[in-house]
Write a structure and sequence with these properties.
Elements: H1 3-8, H2 13-33, H3 36-52, H4 57-75
Helix pairs in contact: 3-4
């Protein structure tokens, strides 16, 4: 980047920094959302809730389905085979 272009784009530096930070936060959130150990821990907690009757069966089933969908997404299931080619 030359001196002139550096000076002209200087006012955009805070915006570029904010975009970079937002991208890092999004990556971290996705990593946490699809972390298999966290999903397994959630499933174990639901099983404990089922045994102690803390939650209704409907609530447990709903939460289990959500966790299993996240687990399948983390493992790459549900995607089109061969990138959508048939």
């Amino acid at each position: 980047m030359g001196l002139i272009s550096g000076l002209l784009t200087l006012p955009l530096a805070p915006l570029r920094g904010t975009v970079w930070l937002a991208e890092r936060i999004e990556e971290q959130a996705a990593n946490e959302l699809y972390d298999e150990s966290a999903i397994r821990a959630g499933l174990l907690a639901l099983e404990e809730s089922r045994e102690t009757a803390e939650l209704s069966e409907e609530e447990i089933d709903e939460a289990e389905n959500e966790l299993l969908e996240r687990l399948m997404a983390a493992r790459g299931f549900g995607e089109e085979p061969y990138g959508g080619l048939q």
